[in-house]
Write a structure and sequence with these properties.
The protein has about 300 residues and is α/β, with parallel strands linked by helices. The chain has twelve helices and eight strands. It has a single domain, classed as Rossmann fold, CATH 3.40.50. The chain is about 35% helix and about 15% strand. Strands 2-1-3-4-6-5-7-8 form an eight-stranded mixed beta sheet, sandwiched between helices. The longest helix has 18 residues. The two termini are about 30 Å apart.
């Protein structure tokens, strides 16, 4: 669906408390257009808990339950069970959490909900840091990235959350990016019509956390996909399908751009280039991305 053909109804209202260029707000606006107003959200501690504004006001035109950091999936499971008991089968239950509340603090509750077969959609907007609490490293933070808790650069590679999700063999999981709104919209619409647990992860480049200009959010997302640092795919009943430029890269119809083209524009990696280039780490980062793509080519 083209952007011009998306629903005009807005569930994200004016006056929200997001930063300029905020990718989470961009993503949630598209997600709620795809799901419609018959949606109930659970939101743990994350940027979105601030973006929605201060009680008793709200900038979301759907019911929201704010819940503890680790409990987004658990709260959604309870809501889904209650709606089922009431016979309200047409209401979509959406758990909306950042990478900290997904990769790390909320992983146990998420895994449990997937194992139980909870009929809900879990969406992780991944800005690769704990942005709301001061830009600390998370399990999603890339190798060598600066954060306030990795001032010399993170020493571990990011967790492959997609692999963990697919190990649960749920009906549908996907990765997308805020820079491709049509892809995001289509995947959420598809997930809405599938019964059982669904997981979608959205790459959400964060201007203050990644240290780039607020007008470059969309460009940062596109470069992440074009360099292979982020992959767009769907997995339906254990069958993976790659989308857009990720599909072209997988089939070797286009070459990945060098990873350096993406990281050199982000202040969180500036220490790799000054006072002098860290060739060893730059090479290691590129090799890591290349290895991920070789694993993808072996997927069924």
């Amino acid at each position: 669906m083209a952007i011009k053909d998306m629903p005009t109804e807005e569930c994200m209202l004016p006056g929200n408390a997001s930063c300029p260029g905020c990718p989470a707000t961009m993503a949630l606006r598209i997600v709620l257009k795809a799901l419609g107003k018959n949606t109930v959200m659970t939101v743990p501690a994350c940027c979105t808990a601030v973006i929605e504004s201060l009680y008793p006001n709200t900038s979301f035109d759907v019911p929201v339950m704010n819940i503890a950091f680790e409990a987004a999936a658990a709260g959604a499971s309870g809501i889904e069970a209650a709606l089922r008991q009431l016979g309200q089968k047409d209401t979509t239950v959406l758990a909306w959490a950042g990478d900290g509340g997904t990769y790390d603090i909320g992983l146990q509750a998420l895994s449990g909900a997937l194992e139980r077969g909870t009929n809900f959609i879990y969406i992780c907007y991944n800005n690769q840091i704990y942005s709301n609490t001061g830009i600390q490293r998370s399990g999603a933070t890339p190798y060598a990235a600066w954060t306030t808790t990795t001032v010399g650069g993170k020493t571990e590679f990011r967790k492959e959350m997609g692999d963990i999700i697919r190990a649960h063999h749920i009906p549908y999981s996907a990765q997308t990016c805020i820079s491709y709104p049509e892809d995001l919209y289509a995947k959420v619409k598809k997930a809405k019509d599938i019964h059982g647990p669904k997981y979608i992860e959205i790459l959400a480049p964060c201007p203050p956390g990644w240290r780039f200009s607020m007008d470059k959010t969309v460009e940062m997302g596109r470069l992440a996909v074009e360099t292979g640092a982020w992959t767009m795919y769907e997995c339906e009943n254990d069958i993976m399908t790659f989308n857009g430029k990720s599909k072209l890269i997988l089939d070797k119809k286009i070459e990945k751009k060098p990873l350096e083209e993406w990281i050199k524009l982000q202040g969180r990696f500036s220490h790799l280039f000054k006072p002098k280039r860290d060739e060893e780490k730059l090479k290691l980062m590129q090799q890591h991305i290349d290895q991920i793509w070789e694993r993808y080519r072996k997927c069924p």
